[in-house]
Amino acid sequence: MSENTLCWTDIPVTNLDRATKFYSAVLGKEVPKMSEGGFEYGLLPHEEQNASGCLCVSSDSAGAENKPSQSGPLIYLSVEGRLDDAVKAVRANGGKVLQERQQIGPHGFRAVIVDSEGNRIALHSS
User: Fold this and answer.
1) Radius of gyration of the chain from Cα atoms?
2) What is the pLDDT of residues 33-88, one digit of tens each?
3) Statement: the pTM of the whole predicted model exceeds 0.90
4) Domain annotation for the chain: domains and CATH numbers
5) 1, burial (CB in 10 Å: exposed 0-12, middle 13-18, buried 19+)
């Protein structure tokens, strides 16, 4: 089994309904709202044990409040084969494009966006 360095990410959101609609449109796959133990979140699409993450509103277990941000780590989300459509969906669903599609050497292409909640995110395709 191959292990990923990144195993999970919590993407902070202020409005879970708006964020699940935004990410469903941008990723081209449903981001279902889930609820476990009083914690409501949007589960990002993934296959079996692949790295993934969720959209979350609440504070983390250490009590620190997670807030949408355009600074700090840049999370790359795969939109394989549909980068241009994903960028169009960003604009159509309340997001903003900071950096249009650009080649990142031999590693494919990315666009850097701000999601509906104010997070800076990179969309990636090979």
Assistant:
1) 14
2) 999 888 899 999 988 778 889 999 865 555 567 889 999 899 999 999 999 999 99
3) no
4) 8-125 (3.10.180.10)
5) exposed
Number of continuous H segments (helices) and E segments (strands) in the chain:
2, 8
**Among all chains, which residue has been given the structure tokens 């949408």?**
68
Opening angle at CA 41, ends 27 and 68, nearest 5: 75
The CA-to-CA distance between both ends of the chain, in Å, stands at 23
Residue 55: closest CA among 27, 33, 83, 82: 33
Render pLDDT for 14-35 as a digit per residue (tens, 0 to 9).
999 999 999 999 999 999 999 9
